[in-house]
């Protein structure tokens, strides 16, 4: 007669743990695939151009101020941003893992979500463009 060396309680616990992990993982994955609403991202943003290594301070010429509008158009210093991207962006849309900018010539640049309110793309030159919410303006 062959006996199972593990008590039934341990097997049941392992099965329960595996089942919970499966359901929790599916729920977490489903949440991560939710698209942000355009109204959630609408507002003032700054695009920052930096080299492969982060400089100590970003020079002002490496910042473009743009506005993402709820109608998914892009306004502001779009020509500045277009110089870096190779096509001036005029539209945008959200994706599960970031957002995409659509240029006047229908080019598409995908920016990966790096952390909340920070999107990033590495250009062929090795430079990095980061799109981040503009800090709130303070009035004296």
Structural account:
The protein is α+β, with helices and mostly antiparallel strands. The protein has three helices and eight strands. Strand 2 and strand 3 form a beta hairpin. The termini are far apart. It holds the Pfam family Inh. InterPro entries: Inh, Inh/Omp19, Protease_inh_B-barrel_dom. It comes from Pseudomonas rhizophila. Keywords: Metalloenzyme inhibitor, Metalloprotease inhibitor, Periplasm, Protease inhibitor, Signal.
List the defining traits of the structure above.
140 residues; alpha+beta; Lipocalin; 2 domains; eight-stranded antiparallel beta sheet; 3 helices; 8 strands; elongated
Evaluate the radius of gyration: 23 Å
CATH architecture of the largest domain: Beta Barrel
Order of helices and strands: HHEEEHEEEEE
Count of extended strands: 8
Largest sheet: 8 strands, antiparallel
User: If helices are DSSP runs of H or I spanning 4 or more residues, what is the number of helices?
Assistant: 3
Poorly predicted sequence stretches spanning 5 or more consecutive residues: 27-31
Shape: elongated
Structural class, by secondary structure, is alpha+beta
The CATH topology of the largest domain turns out to be: Lipocalin
Query: Helicity level, as a percent range?
Result: 25-40%
Strand order of the largest sheet: 3-2-1-8-7-6-5-4
Quaternary assembly: single chain
User: What is the terminal-to-terminal distance?
Assistant: 85 Å
**How much of the sequence is in beta strands?**
35-45%
Q: Please write the CATH class name of the largest domain.
A: Mainly Beta
- Any idea how many domains? 2
- Average pLDDT number: 82
């Amino acid at each position: 007669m062959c006996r199972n060396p593990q008590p039934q309680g341990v097997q049941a616990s392992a099965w329960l743990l595996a089942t919970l992990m499966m359901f929790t993982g599916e729920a977490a994955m489903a949440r991560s695939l939710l698209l942000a609403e355009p109204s959630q991202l609408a507002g003032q943003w700054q695009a920052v151009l930096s080299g492969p290594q982060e400089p100590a301070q970003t020079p002002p010429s490496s910042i473009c101020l743009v506005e993402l509008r709820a109608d998914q158009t892009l306004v502001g210093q779009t020509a500045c941003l277009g110089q870096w991207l190779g096509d001036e962006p005029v539209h945008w849309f959200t994706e599960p893992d970031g957002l995409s900018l659509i240029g006047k010539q229908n080019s598409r640049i995908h920016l990966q979500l790096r952390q909340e309110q920070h999107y990033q793309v590495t250009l062929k030159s090795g430079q990095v463009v980061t799109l981040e919410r503009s800090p709130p303006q303070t009035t004296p």
